[in-house]
Design brief:
about 180 residues, mainly alpha, Helicase, Ruva Protein, domain 3, elongated
């Protein structure tokens, strides 16, 4: 259980520390506090790359499998190159750019989102949206037609020819 100090004790300690510190020391405390708050956020903005994170986004250029599952000598070579870049402190985007420079754009599991490759990212959602719009428009029409068809009485069909009626009666009499 955490013990809390009364507000008066905390206020008294703060007042005593403030009075005891010289202006230069106060400035140093403020700068240290600001840096301690700012530095972790700066390091959090550029996280260290990991091999497992990059392996899932990169392909083996020989066997065309994800580097995470590839077991060819080329895949081992790519992993060693990635480890080297990680040891140099490069970030994930920097490592991916270095891999593209070394092996070409086919090393990336996802194509870059520019030029003709942009169609890979635009066409599937577009087809899905067109399909949804088509269903939204056609389903109510189909339901109206089925309701209208269920409300109209069924007709007995066209009248039989007297000759056909006679033959049907004869066939039914024979079977019974």
């Amino acid at each position: 259980m955490r013990r809390t100090r009364p507000a008066t004790v905390t206020a008294a300690l703060t007042a005593a520390l403030t009075a005891a510190l010289t202006p230069a020391l106060r400035l140093a405390v403020v700068v240290a506090t600001v840096l301690s708050v700012a530095l972790p956020s700066a390091t959090a903005a550029t996280p260290r790359a990991s091999l497992t994170e990059i392996e899932n986004d990169v392909m083996c250029v020989v066997c065309h499998e994800s580097l995470a599952v590839a077991s060819s000598p080329q895949a081992d070579s790519e992993r060693a190159y990635i480890r080297l870049l990680i040891a140099q402190g490069q970030t994930k985007p920097q490592i991916e750019n270095a891999l593209v420079a070394q092996y070409g754009p086919s090393v990336l599991a996802l194509p870059p989102a520019h030029g003709f490759n942009l169609t890979v990212y635009i066409v599937p959602p577009l087809i899905l949206a067109i399909g949804i719009v088509t269903l939204v428009i056609t389903l109510p029409r189909w339901r109206r037609r089925s309701r209208a068809a269920s409300q109209t009485p069924l007709s007995a069909g066209p009248e039989l020819d007297p000759g056909d009626a006679r033959r049907l009666d004869e066939d039914l009499a024979r079977d019974s």
